Amino acid sequence: MSGFLYFACVLTGVLSGGAIGMVAGTLIANSSSGKWPGAVVGAIVFTLLLLRLGRKLHRVLNEPQNGDKS
Predict the structure, then answer these.
(1) Handedness of CA 36, 42, 48, 53 (dihedral sign)
(2) What spatial distance separates the first Cα and last Cα of the chain, rounded to whole Å?
(3) Rounded to whole angstroms, how far apart are CA atoms 1 and 31?
(4) CB neighbour class for 61 (10 Å; exposed up to 12, middle 13-18, buried from 19)
(5) Cα angle: 13, vertex 19, 22; to 5 degrees
(6) CA atoms within 13 A of residue 12's CA, in its CB half-sphere
(7) pLDDT tens for residues 11-28?
(8) What is the DSSP string of 5-70?
(9) What is the pTM of this model?
(10) 21 touches 48 (CB < 8 A)
């Protein structure tokens, strides 16, 4: 995976996953105490999912086309 794609997956996963996890943690815990653990878990989960998606995307984009001999 290229450096830019790796960086984009990590940055997007941390920011969006942290935000969604923070909201979910607050809603599940019904108080502000679940906000930060939810943000950490959300950031980790979303980052891992985006890295898996990035690897698949990289593999698909680097596949040889039907007419290519390489």
Answers:
(1) negative
(2) 19
(3) 40
(4) exposed
(5) 125
(6) 12
(7) 999 999 999 999 988 888
(8) HHHHHHHHHHHHHHHHHHHHHHHHHTSGGGHHHHHHHHHHHHHHHHHHHHHHHHHHHTSPPTT---
(9) 0.77
(10) no
